[in-house]
């Protein structure tokens, strides 16, 4: 049996449209609809709104009334220059971003563009360790997070830092058990952990890691065995110098690769009115080691200050300048040891060390001078100089009074 008022045929798309149109006839009577039109031009965003493809960034600086300054809009980017690289373990997005920011900031600070030619951090041997060695990978994440925490003056280590430190210890222990002598990436990982403890203001753990580095280098038959790995040997020397400045002792190693040939070649092209050697002699420095350091620094300063040459050093050569000067000064007169006999030599030695420390990159709460012994010696040298000038002025005034009295 079939019902005549029911259409039993299949309903296609056209039939559905007719049914919906018939149903809506009664409901749409008297209603007016505007035709949709597309805007031909995009409205210009007002201040505080993002433009097309951009992201608004709130300024961290506020006015005197606590109001925010104008927003800045920057083009939106997808990923960064590290997005195409692979690492020893599967990483989360925040890890890649953290490493990118840390490497970018530290590269600019350790190799300042005012003195160095451009550096491509991705071509560094340490970046190769970051991609291939799990211990160095975790240590790099740890120091990156420590720097972030230190910048915001976080007193306690975050869970992420502790996790990456634990993974670093695990990997280093495994590497040392598997090999008789520590590999270059393993030493680099322990160096990084030492710097982490330094930034975190943990002197006991810092000393433990530095001593471990010294022991590892000796197991490799000394610092000379790392001569071909410039970036690693410079990293070892910087930690050695930092530790000597803290302790006031002589450094454990010694390295003098001051780029004198580069300076001599560049100086031949420059036209300097003053000879650095004669300038050093005029400072009345009697100590031969200090005088040599002064000549080297004056020579390179003349080149840096020559606007016509626009002289810049290769990044590794710039580090060799700092390392060479620091080692010569600290081995000649350790901060906690005997001082120079002549006051001029002592003031020159302390002043040069203070200068070098301003060129060593420091993180977080250590951005101010953390070397207590150096600060004390510098204060004493300045005080002695002021007292001596005061005595000389008093003596000159007394002699003048005696001359006047004798004439009357």
UniProtKB/TrEMBL annotation:
Name of this protein: Transcription factor domain-containing protein
Region feature (Disordered): 34-73
Basic and acidic residues composition bias: residue spans: 34-43
Domain of life, per lineage: Eukaryota
Biased composition annotated in UniProt, kind: Polar residues: 62-73
